[in-house]
């Protein structure tokens, strides 16, 4: 079996499948398969040692038929326009599934952020915003955190945008620190949302969550918060990993303590009373729920057959390839796809944007309650299609997302 996938070929084949199932005409399919705008800029900055370096910055705006473009910005070495385009497309479907009034976008800077100082990162971020400022804005395109960016990055983005426009515009970025208009619960939102989906799926699957074993690949914001939320509902997190490798303990891990260990030693490995494992081994552990919350292309035709979990909830974007999807479906493993499972982050980004526009700040309990309502509704909307089509959940989710965007484009019409 050949499987040379790039994120874009995967995203295109998913769109093709949804278009076919929905009976979209070829014009609509063509429109949806291209981004509205792709921006590539050279970011020149002065490094702390006085030399000048140049980084490539990207922003891809896929579709805005349902509302302004929305999506994260990642800092990652070797990031390509192709990859950012695929991720922008996923954001369009994700926002439509969550039923929030946004389109899809993604951005990136080709940089190893761990090698830059805070001052260099600040100059890089602000210069990037200055180069694309005319394409951003609270009613045009609203950035958020993604891999290796965080609330501080969003503070710089919002501040630079506001400085260039001449007045304070908090609604120009989401995922900001709470002191300057960030929403309570935004940091936890993606991980919590993944667990809301697991909860819903377990009702349908008859999986008892009390004491259920959970393995999580990735210990960044999404992986860590998913681990905390899983423990809150009585699950046992038996394995976690980061880019250096993973740890496994059949009796369950103390998650905040593992974080403290990682902060001290830069790795989760070597944590007391645990077996060190590789990232590949983590995926194949015997467990009830597997949460890939790190990189794309982790579950492929090579290892899909060895997955022993009963349920896979995709915290990361694109961790499973189309061939692996088929294998998991045949093995009757319930897979909750990224565009549904990790939509909690952008959902609370939407709440943050609404709070900023109305100059309100909602209490945490209200944010969490609204998040659960939205996630449950999205999950049930996808399940209704799955039941009707007798399909897997990814196909159901794609049909819902792509279908909603196509309907919006149809009623907008084509101008001129
Ligand atoms: N980067 C996150 C995602 O992939 C959040 C995007 C947002 O909040 O706009 O969904």
Rg measurement, Å: 21 Å
CATH architecture of the largest domain: 3-Layer(aba) Sandwich
The small molecules bound here are:
glutamic acid
End-to-end CA span: 46 Å
Strand percentage lies at 15-25%
User: Helical percent range?
Assistant: 40-55%
The secondary-structure class comes to alpha/beta
| Biggest sheet character | 7 strands, mixed
**CATH homologous superfamily caption of the largest domain:** NAD(P)-binding Rossmann-like Domain
What topology, given as strand order, has the largest sheet? 9-8-7-6-10-11-12
Low-confidence stretches: none
> How is the quaternary structure best described?
single chain
Q: What is the total tally of β strands? A: 12
CATH class of the largest domain: Alpha Beta
Kindly report the CATH topology of the largest domain: Rossmann fold
**Principal-axes shape call:** globular
Entry keywords:
416 residues, binds glutamic acid, Rossmann fold, alpha/beta, seven-stranded mixed beta sheet
């Amino acid at each position: 079996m050949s499987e040379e996938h790039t994120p874009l070929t995967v995203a295109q084949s998913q769109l093709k499948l949804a278009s076919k199932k929905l009976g979209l005409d070829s014009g609509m399919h063509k429109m949806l398969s291209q981004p509205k705008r792709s921006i590539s800029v050279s970011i020149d900055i002065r490094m702390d040692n006085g030399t000048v370096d140049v980084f490539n910055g990207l922003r891809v705006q896929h579709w805005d038929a349902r509302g302004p473009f929305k999506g994260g910005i990642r800092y990652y070495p070797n990031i390509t326009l192709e990859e950012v385009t695929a991720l922008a497309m996923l954001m369009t479907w994700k926002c439509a599934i969550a039923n929030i009034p946004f389109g899809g976008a993604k951005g990136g800077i080709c940089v190893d952020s761990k090698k830059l100082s805070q001052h260099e990162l600040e100059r890089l971020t602000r210069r990037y915003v200055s180069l694309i400022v005319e394409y951003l804005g609270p009613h045009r395109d609203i950035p958020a955190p993604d891999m290796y960016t965080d609330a501080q990055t969003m503070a710089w983005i919002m501040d630079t945008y506001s400085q260039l426009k001449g007045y304070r515009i908090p609604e120009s970025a989401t995922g900001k620190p709470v002191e300057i208009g960030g929403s309570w619960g935004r940091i936890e939102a993606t991980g919590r949302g993944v667990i809301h989906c697991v909860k819903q799926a377990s009702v349908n699957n008859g999986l008892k969550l009390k004491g259920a074993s959970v393995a999580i690949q990735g210990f960044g914001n999404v992986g860590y918060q998913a681990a905390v939320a899983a423990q809150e509902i009585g699950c046992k997190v038996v394995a976690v990993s980061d880019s250096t490798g993973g740890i496994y303990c059949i009796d369950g891990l103390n998650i905040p303590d593992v974080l403290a260990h990682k902060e001290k030693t830069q790795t989760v490995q070597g944590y007391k009373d645990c077996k060190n494992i590789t990232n590949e081994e983590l995926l194949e552990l015997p467990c009830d729920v597997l949460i890939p919350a790190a990189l794309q292309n982790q579950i492929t035709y090579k290892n899909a057959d060895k997955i022993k979990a009963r349920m896979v909830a995709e915290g990361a974007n694109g961790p499973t390839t189309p061939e692996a999807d088929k294998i998991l479906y045949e093995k009757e493993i319930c897979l909750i796809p990224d565009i549904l499972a990790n939509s909690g982050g952008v959902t609370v980004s939407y709440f943050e944007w609404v709070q900023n526009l109305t100059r309100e700040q909602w209490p945490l309990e209200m944010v969490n309650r609204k998040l659960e309502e939205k996630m449950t509704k999205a999950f049930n909307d996808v399940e209704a299609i799955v039941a009707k089509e007798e399909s897997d959940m990814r196909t159901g989710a794609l049909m819902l997302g792509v279908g909603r965007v196509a309907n919006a484009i149809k009623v907008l019409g084509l101008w001129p």
